[in-house]
Amino acid sequence: MDYSIVDFVALIGAVCLFLYGMKVMSEGLQKAAGNGLRSILSAMTRNRFMGVVTGILITALIQSSSASTVMVVSFVNAGLMSLEQSMAVIMGANVGTTFTAWIVAIFGFKVNMGTVLMPLLAIAVPMMLMKKNKTKSIGEFLIGFVFLFMGLASISEYVPDLSKSPEIFESLKAYTSMGFLSVLIFWAVGVVVTAVIQSSAATFAIVLILASKGWVPFDMACAMVLGSKIGTTITPVLASLGGNTAAKKAAAGHVLFNVLGAVWELPCFFLVVKLIVWMNESVFGMGDPDLLYQTSNSGTAVSEEQMAQMQFSMSFAMSMFHTVLAVINLGVMIWFTKLYVKMVNFLVKSKKKNKDEEEFQLKYISGGLLNAAELNIMQAQRETVVYAQRVERMLGMVKTLVHTKTGTEEFNKLYTRIGKYEEISDRMEIEIANYLNKLVDGRLSLDAKWQVSTLLNIVSEIESIADSCNNVARTLVRKEEAQAHFSDYNYNNIDTILRYVSEAMSNMIAVLVDIENATDEDMMRTYDKEREINNFRNQCRTENIENINQKVYPYQAGIFYMDIICEAEKLGDFIVNVIDSVDEQVKRTHPHASHSEALNPEK
């Protein structure tokens, strides 16, 4: 057989083109419906059956069970989905991934894609050059579709023709005629190949080409497809490595579901294969799917029309095997969702940590894989809320520190803790910003890039709030070192302005927690509170001059007092800057709507 190293490298390139086409298709659809996917995943997982439907729809839409499962891991990591909900979505994803198999089988063998791909490319490229983001994303999807089938055609072209090498056929026969051991061998090959290329759809395409060339019989091709279900679990496992315990549990649930499914499916393998062959022949009238292998093995000459019919019969039967097995597995496993959760909780133990240590860990984002970058923005949003809540606790410590007697162990301990919070605040800002920058490096829609820009501004302002809190604490220490003393009047005013700041910050966090449902009134409460802070600062400044002149308290005490009042006013400014960033994002997303209309379209 004349098969050179160049042909082998070309075959690898063809597989890469297929994988790249699938990736571009998936990303194009995610960008076209990014917010929609977030809404579907968060709204349609209220019970296990809706979760299954969600998993089927999302996976059928983005053409990758690995990508949809990584999304689920990300959502569990972000606390947006419970482990039980994630199991239902993962179960649905295993059925949804069969949609890709049907596309490849039907279009790859029934439709002459050569007459379709170039016109599609002629439509897709101009769409990519248009201004509207959704149109660009749809164009990207079409280009991915073209690349996918170009890759499929190239794989078929560069797979060696074994009909010219009878000795290789004979050696393959030895591996395909060992009964159940042969099933295990080809099943293991499916596991390894899918784990390497991280796509069960690509494995299905490769197996389909091998079977269409007559390399392997129908049952062994099915065994490889069955093995690909376990190999595909490697992607979410890798995605969960840098995540929290919940993410690791979701990935473990995916592995458990696929492995346990294979455990009971393998003993029933030949029974299912016979069922599919019977359905293919008697129900759909497609003929024996193994006829292609038998014809190639015997060397019988057939016409192109007969070959095309046999190839389509085999591909149809393989897709049916893939789907029937997934549906049966789902029908059995869905009733044991709670048991799965218990098993996962037993296998993946939550780490017990010191309370203070846990407090300063990033909760929702990690340095793991950034698949489905559009959806990972929500993780960054949730982490930003946690960041704001921690800085709010820091503000509470400052309010307590004001009334803690200086020089005492309690004061020193609280002051040290505020300093630690400030250091942690700096680290969190850097880690969240780095995460957001990695998202920007991905293929994001324009709206998603605006969201990232808004979050970067918000994170920077929250860090400034932490700095100001620390500055108030340091001012209290300097006051003690200077042996200055505040009067009740000073303490009352400091308490008042810090209370205003605390209320403004609570309003700010409420907006961040539920940005999509925020209203004019929610944001105006913060603006109104900031005006109160400014007015009160001006009042304190005027009264401070009079009080010093009238010797109500010493000049030095008045200086420290006004330093704290002015720092509190800066806190109000930083809080309003966060609300301004949210407001700007709303205007960008909905340029013709008011705040409440933009954030609540149903109003």
Could you explain the architecture of this structure?
There is one protein chain. The protein is mainly alpha-helical. Helices cover 80% and strands 0% of the residues. The protein contains 26 helices and no strands. It has helices at 5-32, 34-43, 48-62, 65-77, 83-96, 98-109, 114-128, 133-158, 166-176, 180-197, 200-212, 218-231, 234-240, 245-265, 269-283, 291-298, 304-333, 337-347, 355-359, 373-402, 409-441, 446-481, 488-513, 520-549, 555-589, 595-599. Helix 6 (98-109) runs antiparallel to helix 17 (304-333). It is elongated, with a radius of gyration of 31 Å.
List the main descriptive attributes of the protein structure presented here:
single chain, 603 residues, mainly alpha, 26 helices, disordered C terminus
Q: How many β-strands, per DSSP?
A: 0
Question: What's the tally of helices?
Answer: 26
Structural class determined from secondary elements: mainly alpha
Q: Describe the sheet with the most strands.
A: none
Rounded to the nearest angstrom, the radius of gyration is: 31 Å
Q: H/E element string?
A: HHHHHHHHHHHHHHHHHHHHHHHHHH
User: Taking all residues together, what is the mean pLDDT?
Assistant: 81
Termini separation? 71 Å
Stretches with pLDDT under 50, minimum 5 residues: 353-359, 592-603
What percent of the residues sit in helical stretches (DSSP H or I)? over 70%
Query: What would the principal axes of the Cα set say about the shape?
Result: elongated
Strand proportion, as a percent range, falls in under 5%
